[in-house]
Amino acid sequence: MSLPPCPTCQSAYTYEDGANLVCPECGHEWPAQALDANAETARVWRDASGNLLQDGDTVTVIKDLKPKGSGGVIKQGTKVKNIRLVDADHDIDCKIDGFGAMSLKTEFVRKV
Fold this sequence. Notes:
The structure is a single chain. Strands 1-2-3 form a three-stranded antiparallel β-sheet. It has one helix at about 30-40, and strands at about 15, 20, 30, 60, 80, 85, 90-95, 100-105, 110. The protein has about 110 residues and is mostly beta strands. The mean pLDDT is about 90. Strand 2 (about 20) and strand 3 form a beta hairpin. About 10% of the residues lie in helices and about 25% in strands. The protein contains one helix and nine strands.
């Protein structure tokens, strides 16, 4: 079994010490099982109804939204095409006609 290189210094001389992996060059220690758990975990985005969202989907706004710094309101039922999912505070980056570039939360949209 080959061990992964050190995440700090990229040394190939890592070794196991119980449940940890250790780098003899820089002294960095990290859990061996954390690598397997992180590789399996992928972020999943779901809309307000629990439907799985993907990049490029079309969604509908489910309630009136008042964007900060803007005088307008995004009305309920507004369709948003070609969304892009991001791992940030607001989960969706998109362009809305009449408003321009916008970030939305998945809890306020439903997949069409």
